[in-house]
Design a protein that fits this description.
Elements (H helix, E strand, L loop, with lengths): L4 E4 L1 H16 L3 H17 L13 H5 L3 E5 L3 E8 L2 E9 L5
């Protein structure tokens, strides 16, 4: 069994960039860089091959078949999990998901 292919949509990249820019605007440039690296490392280390992650609790995202996973208790990573491919859709503040 091969490794799961992970694709990042532009919306995810833009969401992560906006959080990173906010951190950087506080004068924490190195922290912003490390934050982005931690997010990508977290996603790369998820075991998509063996784990079927749960559907989002948000009814709108759940009806679309999207999966959600928490990152650092403050952010939610939203994605589609399809066999040997994962499509990362969003990176949003958890309090913004209803």
């Amino acid at each position: 069994m091969g490794k799961t292919k992970i694709n990042f949509l532009d919306t995810f990249i833009e969401n992560l960039a906006s959080v990173s820019l906010f951190i950087e605007s506080k004068g924490l440039t190195q922290t912003a860089i490390l934050f982005k690296e931690k997010v990508y490392d977290f996603i790369e280390n998820l075991n998509f091959d063996k784990t079927e992650y749960s559907t989002c609790r948000d009814p709108e995202r759940a009806s679309s078949g999207l999966k959600c996973i928490l990152f650092n208790k403050k952010y939610t990573i939203v994605f589609y999990q399809m066999g040997d491919e994962v499509l990362i859709i969003e990176f949003v503040a958890s309090k913004m998901i209803h």
